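Example S7 (structure tokens).
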């Protein structure tokens, strides 16, 4: 397997533990930050697609080699992720090979509150169907952003529908 876990800052958020494991890719010698979650703080689950949560920067940038996320902070209506980014691959040899071109800096990525995960259809229409959601209470809040996508001269608008008692926008 092409990965090793190096560390994982975590945050207790709304009663759920959110983890951001550092995933070392042994083939490319890069470090990425991923997303995980836990209800008990001991057994963490990762998302099925397992892509990086805060990806490496574009080739030639200061954070294209490794990204190390620190513990997130809730501040001013947002979630702040400070991270260390470097432009060399993981290892002293690569740092020395970069020589004067070696760069490291602290970056800041932010999210709106409750904005940890999203689904995006991309350029093509998409459909998402969930299992029935059962909860106690009289209100369910869904964060939904309407967008317009078009292909082959046909406009497709986003929509949101709910079953059962109905959904109000």
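Recovered sequence:
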């Amino acid at each position: 397997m092409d990965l090793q876990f190096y560390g994982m800052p975590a945050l207790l958020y709304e009663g759920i533990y959110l983890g951001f494991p550092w995933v070392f890719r042994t083939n490319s010698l890069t470090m990425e930050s991923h997303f995980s979650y836990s209800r008990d703080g001991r057994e963490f689950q990762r998302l099925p697609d397992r892509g990086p949560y805060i990806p490496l920067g574009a080739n030639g940038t200061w954070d294209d080699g490794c990204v190390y996320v620190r513990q997130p902070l809730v501040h001013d209506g947002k979630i702040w992720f400070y991270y260390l980014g470097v432009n060399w691959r993981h290892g002293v040899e690569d740092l020395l090979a970069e020589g004067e071109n070696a760069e490291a800096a602290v970056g800041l990525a932010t999210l709106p509150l409750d904005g940890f995960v999203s689904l995006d259809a991309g350029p093509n229409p998409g459909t998402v169907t969930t299992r029935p959601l059962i909860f106690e209470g009289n209100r369910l809040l869904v964060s939904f952003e309407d967008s317009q996508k078009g292909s082959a001269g046909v406009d497709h608008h986003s929509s949101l529908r709910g079953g059962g008692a109905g959904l109000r926008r």
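Notes on this example. Helices lie at 92-98.
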